[in-house]
Every structure is written in C-alpha cells, then in structure tokens.
Amino acid sequence: MQKLTLILLILLVSASSLFAQQATLKGTVIDTSEKKNLTNSVVALLRKSDSVLVTFGRTDKSGQFTLSRFVPGKFVLMVTHPAYADYMDEVEVKDASPVNLGNIAMILKSQLLQEVVVSHKLGAIRIKGDTTEYKADSFYMKAGSSVEDLLKKLPGIQVDKNGKITAQGETVQKVLVDGEEFFSDDPTIATRGLLSDAVDKVQVFDKKSDQATFTGVDDGQKTKTIDLKLKEDKKKGYFGKLELGSNGDKYWNNSGMLNAFKAKRKFSAFGIMSSTGKTGLDWRESMNYGGTGNGMDMGMSDDGGMYITMSGGDDFDGGSYWGEGFPKGWSAGVHYSNKWNGDRLHLNGNYKYNKLNTEAAGRNTSKYILPDTLYYINEFGNNYSTKERHRVDGMYEVQIDSSSSLKITAGGSTGKSNSFNVTKTDWLDENGNPVRKIDQRTSSIGENKAFNSTLLYRKKFKKQGRTISVTFNQDYKENESQGFLYADNEYFDSNGASTHKLIDQKKINDNITSLVNGKVSYTEPLSKRALLEFNYSMSNNHRQSRRTALEKTDPGSPKYEDVVDSLSNDYAFNVFNNAAGINYRYAKPKRISFGFGANVSRADFTRKDLKSDKEVKYSFTNFFPSANITWTLGSNGSLRFNYNGNTQAPSIDQIQPVADNSDQSNIKLGNPDLKQAFRQRFNISYNNYKILSESGIYASMSFSTVQNDFSSMTTIKNGTRITQPVNVNGNYNGNAWIDYSRKIKKLDVSVGPNLNFNVSRNVNFIDGLENTNTNYSVGFGFNIWKQKEKKYTLSIRPDFRYNYAKSSLRPDVVTKYWTQDHDVDMSVTLPWKLEIGSDVNFSIRQKTDAFDKNNNAIRWNARIERKILKNDAGRIRFAAFDLLDQNIGFNRSINSNFINERTYDTFRRYFMATLIWNFNKNGKPMGW
C-alpha cells in the first residue's frame, strides 16, 4: 500500500509539472501576392535537436492555427500547402506564455519557379532590420574581379575612383572579413586585394559598439560597416593574386596578396610597390598622408562653403592615388587570426607598413569678396614630402564561461615625416595693383607615436536579459616636429612704394593627447521584450601643446636662440567628465523595436597657461537625449528613425592663445574663451527590396543643428588674412538621398536613378560684421548596366549637380553653376581568350564670373588582355591611360566671400604592360 501511494504521488507531481510547462503557439498563414488567408495549410512543429515531430495541426477558414500542449524549447516550424512552397523557420518557446507568430507569408510555387528559372536571383538581396545582405553569386562577375568590382554592382552601394565606399547614403568606415577586423584601418586592402569569387555574402549594417551590441541598448556609437562572408571552400587552403606592371621607364605597379586558411586559422599578407598612385592607402588614411582627392567630388566645408575636387584616374582598375603630384609608395602588411578551444579563445592581429614620397607643384587663384572691396591672390608652390609609418594592432577574446567573456584590444604606431615647401604669393587689389608679395620657404621634420587599448568584460545572469558590462578605453598620441620658416614679405602702399620685412625663424612643436574612459552598464528585464539599462561613465581628456618660435640673435649667426614670445606658448587643456543615464528598450522580433533615454553629465574644464602658471576652471552640466525606432516591413524592408544629442569640446589648437604664422598669408589665432558645442542629429531611412521584380529602393534623410558651433572671425588687411575661432548659433545642415534600382527583364537591363539634396546655413564674421552663408546643392544621377555573360558588359553612369551659394554681406553676389561627371565603362570578350575594355570619364564645369577658365576634361583609358596559364589563372594586359592627354589636377572651393581654384601636377598620358596571376589551392597549404 505504501509503495502504491508513493507511485501515485510521483505520477501526480510529474503530471503537475508537465501541465505547468505546457506551451501554446499561434499564427496566421497568408498568401504573399494576394494577401489572403490560406485555409487547410498543414502546420508542423519539429524538435530542433533531432527533427522529431512534436505536434501538428491545420489552419481554419480564417487561416489561423493553434498548437498547444507541448513542452517549451527550441523547434523548427514547417508550414505546407499543395500550391505553395514549403515554409520553414526556427522558433524558440521559453515558457508557458502563449506565443503569437503573427502572419506567415507563403509563396506560390509558380512564382518561385519563375524566379529561379528566369532570374536565378531568389534571395539575391535580403533586408533584416538594419542589415542589408547581398548574395554574391547572384551578380555575374568576370574571372579575376575584385571585391570592389562586386560592390560597384550592388544596389544602394557606390564606390568612387578612390575606393571610397558609400552605402545607403553614408560613408563606409569599416570592412570586415567573416566578422573580423582585416588590416583594421585600411578597408581597401580587403576590397581591392580579395577576389569576388571568394565571397559568399556581403552584409551592410550600422556596427554598434561592443557594449551596445551586448546590452541591446543603442549608445549612439555607430559605424557604417561592410562584412564580407567568405565561401566555405575558400577557407581551405590558400588563394591570392600577384600583379607585376611597368612601362619600362618611370612608371611601375607591383602588388601581391596571399590568404591562407586551415580550419579556423587565417593568415594574410600583402605588398605594394607603385609609382602610379596605387599606394595601398584607403581614402581616409590617404587624407592623413596629405592627399587631396582623385576623380571629381563636391561637398560642403564646415564654414558653409562648397568645394569641388577633380584629379585624374590613375589606374584602369581604380588605383588609390590621392596626393597631388607624383607619388612613389610602398606598403606591406600581415594579418593573423585564430579560434580554438571550442571557440572560447579568439586572437586577431595585424601589422602594416607604409611609406609615401611625393613631389608636387600647383597654383591657386583666389578672390576675397568684402563688403567694400575685394582682393585677388595668385599663389605658386612646389612641395616635396616623405612619410613613413609602422602600425601593430590586435584583439584577444576569451569566453570565461557560458555567461561571461573578456575582450582586450590594443594598437600602436610610430611614424616619421619630412617636408619642404616653396611658395610665391601675390596679393592684388580690385584694380589689379600689388598689395603684398610673399616669397616663402618652409621645412619640417616630425615624429609621432600612438597607443590605444580597450578592455571589455561582459556578464549574463541566469535571468534572461539581466546583464552587466564594464569597458575601459585608453588613447595616447604624441607628435613632435621642428622646422624652419623663411619669408620675404614686400608690402606696397597706395602709391606703389614698397617696404620689406624678413622673417627667419625656427619652429619647435610638441603635442600630447591622452584620453582615459571607463563605463559600466547594467540591464534589467521588465518583460520578455522590454528592458531598462542603467549606465555610469567617467572620463578624463588631457591635451597639451607646446609651441616655440626662435629667431637668430645675430642675423649672420647659424643659431636660433631668441624666443619670440608672441609666437610661443605652453598650454594645457583638461576635461573631466562624469555621466549617468537610463534607457528603455523594447523589441518585438520581425515587427518593431524602439528605445529612448537620456544621459546627464557634468564636465569640468581646466585651461592652464604653463608658461605664466595661470589657470582657469569652469563647468557645464549637459543633457544628452536619444531615441530610435525600427519597423520591419515584410521580409525585405525596414524603416528606421534615430535622434541623439552630444557635445563637442574645442581642440587645443582652437583655444591656445598664440598665433600660428607658418602660412604668411593666413595667420591663425587661438581663442581660450571658446565654449563647448552641442549638436542634435535627426535621421530617418527606408529600405525595401522586392525579389520577384528585382527592384529596390533605399532612402535616407538627416538634419543636424548646432548650438555654440565653432566658426571663424576673419579680418583681412594689408594682404593678410587673420582668423580666430568663435562660437555662433544658427548653424544647421541637412541632406536627403534616394536610390532606386530595377531590372527591366524584357531588355535585360538594370537601371538605377538616384537623387540627393544638401542644404546648410553657417554663420561667421568678416571684418567685424556678422555674415550668414546659405548653400544648396542638388544632384541627380542614373546608372544603366547591361551584360551578356562571357560576351560583354556595359555601364553608363551620368551625374549632374547644381550648386548655389549666397552671403548676407553681399546678397548681390550669388554663386551658382552646374557640374557634370559622366562615366562609361565597357568590356568585350573576343575569341582566342582575348578581352578589350575601355572607360571614359567626362568632367564638365560651367563657367562663372569667378571661374571663366575651361577646365573640362575627357579622360579615356583603354586596355587589351589575354588569358593565359592553366584554367585561365593568368592574364597579360596592355593598357593606355589618358589617351587624349587631358587629365588635370583640379579643385574648387566656394562661398560667397572666398572663391578658390587650384590646379596641380598629376599623371598624364602613359602606357603599361602588366602580368596578373590569380592562384588558389584547396586543401592544406604545404608547411602550414
């Protein structure tokens, strides 16, 4: 009897437990095309671990179904209907609470068959939240094409001749490979070094900080990122590319890249030697090396002015020459990454070396328009520079246990630079009479070093959604330079009589920047879909600048010993910040997610003149609101809105109370009374892609306004422009962008119109008078692309832009003009393994009162190549660059008070022969 009682008790407890854990799953099955509910569809729930059938049912007259009486867990949901393609998706049921899956869309088999047979592009593009995913094999690429060639064909992505990538209207800052950093600070190593046939998928998204990714709460730190997912068969063995090119004279272009894989171990190496501008520097890094641009570009400067840049394409494959003049570049690097111990340990490291020598000559023609007069400035200059850098960075991550991890990143660099400049400048009044002549020579030798590190600890608790994370950041930079300034200034009075002033100085500059930051974040779930995040951070930003100007005691002496007090100073600027915040986050999968919150901080500022030992302290209390929302629109669409506010402290160069006379025409003064600026940003974006029609639309709009923005107060007198930063209110800028792509199946042509608009309002002061600059620009482009596999490809990309600028000080002077930039690319496959190709760029700029010169140019490149070696792994190419010899270096900057046009030396017509070898081997590399 006791045994029977015990058995009954055990059965009763077990039954109660099972009953308490029973779950329910609901949903509605609909047709994708007609949006009608589907009756009598079979809905089956399979256990994910072993595919065992757990339960099943059918949809009723309204297309609804309910599955119940099963234990929570991870499952595979399968929906079938005779006329429709099977639907499968993974589902997780965490507890006994009813789960409503909403609408489940089914595709007719007839539509699916048409998609597969006719277009071969089912799932070519998928949009999941803020991630757009492209399947690489859905876009035909010629053998030997680079990833950059692939990106140019993807809707919503543009790549200019410099390698600068724009995705969904925003500049791409990072390119990852399989989710990992790949030569970190140079995206073009991946886009130009990797072959397109190695890529399985291309993902475009806004990469959040590691801490925000972990907590699920947006902290405002976003980086437009591309992640290249490699094919599995390319992760076994090795593949790479070797390129050797020369014209037998002063032009040479040699490069190579190797990628080797063994399980989860990855090794990559590259090297570049080039005198054609292919330096291996990406568009961002090239600007740090003194580059100015390549191809034609238009934008707006911080003071509200417009600029246009145009210099010739240097390389048929789209090299990366950015600097003016004629560069010689050397670049090399290695990359290593590995995961082991069941992926609990992860190591990633990079080393990179760059050296760039440049010789350049150029001319500036400028006009200053003032309320009562104007000035003309003509400037001729020659420059030689050399820069060299070593950089090492790495990441180590360890999964401590199933709930916690530790990630450490660190990087450092050292660099040297050397430059010499000769400049001759003439200032003329409105009648063409001389005001000032400057004959200036400067030289500089510099060294710099930097080190940064990040430590991130993450911990998940047993309660779903409860987490804590701690991050620590450190960044240190030091720059030392010394050089000489020699300037012969000749001033003219109204009668034409002149006087001379000679400047002969030695300059010594030292700058140190040190940042330390720590943050802790805690999340607490409010429900399965909502959570609160609490955070606290503390940071200290210290900057010090020491400037020393020395003159000779005796003009005949070689020693510089007398300190020029007006040009010398030792200054420190420190900002200590405490901040705390709270954020709310809600997410309903495949439907909607949103968040809002705010941070409050106290910033303590300290300015100290270390020479006079004078110190000024002051504080600000700041409020940082934020909000974001994302709607998921079907399977391939999304609508996002984002708002945030943040402050920006002035740089030490802006506040240091000392004059910088290194450019005798433009003297810069610091302003220690500058306040911090507060910027508010609004952004909305919409993406949608329709698989069956192969059409997509990508649009975004943003607007920002700044309180206490940094602007300038300019005084022009006796052929000298003196500028000092000041705070202003009323500045704003906005832009809108839309790109539409569609396949016209009858013509087998892909088309893609795009439209963009920019507007800005910027306040500054000229000769003590407030001036408001208003600028507009409207751009319209159109992409037409057609190809016949193994026969030909044709791409036509016309682009038009209208620019308008006016100033409140001179409302009678309005600057408006058109620019055009059109590209035509074509390649034809011939018998005998031959291929010919050509690309032409038409750059057209409307003449204006300020610019009456014709700087239009047609840049025409052509090539012929033949495939060689086994499996067509090699190519011999003969190419001609700038056949019409019209390539010019050119840029233009405009606002209603200052207009500048610059021309400079760049590559003209030349020819080159190149040998290219693409190699690969599946399996284990020898000795690896």
UniProtKB/TrEMBL annotation:
Cited Gene3D superfamilies: Carboxypeptidase-like, regulatory domain
Source organism superkingdom: Bacteria
Pfam families: CarboxypepD_reg, OMP_b-brl_3
Single Gene Ontology MF annotation: carbohydrate binding
Keywords: Signal
InterPro entries: Carb-bd-like_fold, OMP_b-brl_3
Organism, as annotated: Paraflavitalea soli
Protein name stated in the entry: Outer membrane protein beta-barrel domain-containing protein
Classification of source organism: Bacteria, Pseudomonadati, Bacteroidota, Chitinophagia, Chitinophagales
Limits of the Outer membrane protein beta-barrel domain: 459-760
Residues making up the signal peptide according to the UniProt record: 1-20
